[in-house]
Amino acid sequence: MEAVVEATDVRKTYGETVALSGASLSVEGGEVFALIGPNGAGKTTLVRALTGTTEPDSGRARIMGDSPMAVDRSRLGVLPQNFSPPDRLSAHELIAYYAGLYDNARDPDDVLADVGLADTGETWYEDLSGGQQRRVCVGATLVNDPDVLFLDEPTTGIDPAGRRTVWRLIEELAASGTTVLLTTHDMAEAERLADRVGLLADGSVIARGTPTELVREHGGSSRLTIETAAGPDAFADLEYPVDRPERGRGQTPDSVVVVRDIDPVAIATVVDYLERHDLEYTGLTWSEPNLEDVYLALADGTELERTDRADETDDGADLQQTGETA
User: Which residue ranges does the record annotate as region Disordered (predicted)?
Assistant: First the structure.
């Protein structure tokens, strides 16, 4: 199937900052493609390059076979990450305003109902909650019934119930044939919505595939996390591999150990081992790998490298400042 949205070796720099270093992706018709990655990885810049609001230094961006600058804008819906419409208009007035930009726009009341705001149409935008404001912004991108929809962090600040409303709406749009490219930091959102996921790090897409494919390839094994002061050496006779958790698991390294490659039916074996060896523990948690594990495995190293580089720069600046002061 021919790609509806396509980026090929897109590069973009801002001064000395490299935002994109050769990013490539393709999105097929009716597909939901989720772009994930650390802050500063280049997700928003790539969306801007694809929608024609930023011109790449090199590489190629295409929408429905055309340059983003040449494509019929009435066929696109674009929700920027930062979108601030006028405060002193009601939700209905805002949707009606954007509907007035198109010849065959949808009814504003229908759009408000789609985003779960049918009862707040007369409320001024500034009086809506942050999550309601974001849903109005989502609605503004749908008034022209777009063929291709770009959503940059669409559910940021939306409460869980509102988030699920937006999720169902995106699923319905994709089912009706709309092509969707969204960026998100919510791995549950990407896992639920996306047919395929691309992980952007340091300006390039370093992995892509269905959530299942990515988890299978990069997510690691099932694991049993044990809250205990005992170290991995205390489990030397256990038939499963045991080690400390990876960085970012939410526990301090000395408070837990992780038993890997274990099925839930074998948890009793571990409990028996703990009791036979008089190893105290306060909790057990079994889990399968998911998209968050993929993110941590592939993006965490990049984030650490960036932090280390920033720390080195700061240290150098501090040393230089100290020398000048002295």
Answer: 305-326
